[in-house]
Amino acid sequence: MFKVNIYSIKQVKEKAGLYDLQSKVIRSPKDVHELVEKVLDLSNEASELFGIITLNTKNVIAGMHILSKGSLNSSLVHPREVFKAAILNNAASLICFHNHPSGDCSPSPEDIQLTGRLVEVGSVIGIEVLDHVIVGNDFCSLKEKGFM
C-alpha cells in the first residue's frame, strides 16, 4: 500500500481597493503605468518590484500580483511563479511590470531576456504575454520598443 496525499489549490484575495481609473480595460502601456502608479506608487519604491496584471479575454483587469521584491537594481523572477499566478487567476493574457528605482526606465539585457523567456512559455501554455512595462521617472514598453 502507498500513501497518497491529496491537495487542493485555492487563490485567496489579499486585499482590494477602489481606484480612480479611466477604465478596467488595458488598452496601452500608458494604462499600465497609470494603474501601477495609482495602486503601488512604483516610481517611489526603493527596491525593484516585479509583478503582473492578469487580464480576461476582453483585456479587463482580473487581478494584480506582486511576484518579487528585489534589491536596488535587480529582482529574481522565474516563469513558474509568473504563470502560476496567471493560471490561478484564470487569465487569458498578462502584462508584466517592474520598476527601476534609479528612475531610468531603459530595459536592461536581463529585462529583455526574461521577457523573451516569458513570451515563449506563455505561447506554450496558452497565456499570451502582451507587454512588459518598466516604470521609472517615465515608463517604457518592451513591446513598443520592439523587444517582443
Task: Please tell me about this protein's structure.
A five-stranded mixed sheet has the order 2-1-3-4-5, with helices on both faces. The protein has one domain: Cytidine Deaminase, domain 2. It has helices spanning 29-40, 79-88, 109-125, and strands at 49-55, 61-69, 93-99, 128-135, 139-141. It is built from three helices and five strands, in the order αββαβαββ. With 148 residues, it is of the alpha+beta class. 26% of the residues lie in helices and 23% in strands.
The gist of it:
With 148 residues, this protein is of the alpha+beta class.
Average pLDDT confidence is: 87
Radius of gyration of CA atoms, rounded to a whole number: 16 Å
Topology pattern, helix = H, strand = E: HEEHEHEE
Morphology call: globular
What is the name of the CATH superfamily?
A: Cytidine Deaminase, domain 2
Biggest β-sheet description: 5 strands, mixed
As a percent range, the share of strand residues is: 15-25%
Structural class: alpha+beta
- The third-level CATH topology is Cytidine Deaminase, domain 2
Straight-line N-to-C gap: 51 Å
The CATH level-2 architecture is identified as 3-Layer(aba) Sandwich
User: CATH class, please?
Assistant: Alpha Beta
Entry keywords:
single chain; 148 residues; alpha+beta; Cytidine Deaminase, domain 2; five-stranded mixed beta sheet; 5 strands; 26% helix
Write the SSE topology.
Elements: H1 29-40, E1 49-55, E2 61-69, H2 79-88, E3 93-99, H3 109-125, E4 128-135, E5 139-141
Parallel strand pairs: 3-4
Antiparallel strand pairs: 1-2, 1-3, 4-5
